């Protein structure tokens, strides 16, 4: 369902989308998720490349997150709500699950904050 939402709305956590016209060297940047602010600027090819690479990196990270969130949800269901629930060393499985989950969340938030900061600096420089 999350993947379908992402495909239909072209959503990513950075909240920034772009369109680049090579003929006129103009870049249209849409900021925001629900309330979009559209800015159109004439840019150099290097500036356009910097913006595009950062937005694409954030988009790829979000797409990877969709699959990892689905994996964590499936493991959660398997651990707590199905007959597949391990009978031996159950507490260790739960402990390891939460360790992996917390590690993933910390890593993901850190990377997204770093990307958002770099993207904000790049967009201000345009």
Care to describe what's here?
- By secondary structure, the protein is of the alpha+beta class.
- It has helices at 2-9, 45-80, 90-124; strands at residues 16-21, 26-31, 37-42.
- It has a three-stranded antiparallel β-sheet with strand order 1-2-3, covered by helices on one side.
- It is elongated.
- The model has no long low-confidence stretch (mean pLDDT 85).
| Main sheet attributes: strand count, strand direction, barrel closure | 3 strands, antiparallel
Report Rg.
19 Å
Question: Low-confidence stretches at least 5 residues in length (pLDDT < 50)?
Answer: none
Count up the helices.
3
Please provide the ordered H/E string of secondary-structure elements.
HEEEHH
Query: What would you call the structural class?
Result: alpha+beta
Biggest sheet: strand arrangement? 1-2-3
Distance between the termini: 36 Å
Outline, from the CA principal axes? elongated
**Average pLDDT level:** 85
């Amino acid at each position: 369902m999350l993947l379908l939402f992402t495909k239909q709305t072209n959503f990513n956590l950075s909240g920034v989308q772009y369109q680049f016209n090579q003929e006129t060297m103009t870049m249209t940047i849409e900021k925001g998720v629900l309330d979009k602010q559209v800015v159109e600027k004439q840019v150099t090819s290097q500036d356009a490349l910097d913006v595009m690479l950062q937005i694409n990196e954030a988009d790829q990270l979000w797409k990877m997150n969709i699959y990892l969130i689905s994996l964590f949800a499936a493991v959660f269901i398997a651990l707590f709500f199905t007959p597949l629930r391990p009978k031996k060393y159950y507490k260790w499985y739960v402990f390891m699950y939460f360790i992996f989950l917390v590690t993933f969340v910390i890593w993901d938030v850190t990377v997204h904050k770093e990307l958002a900061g770099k993207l904000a600096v790049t967009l201000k420089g345009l």
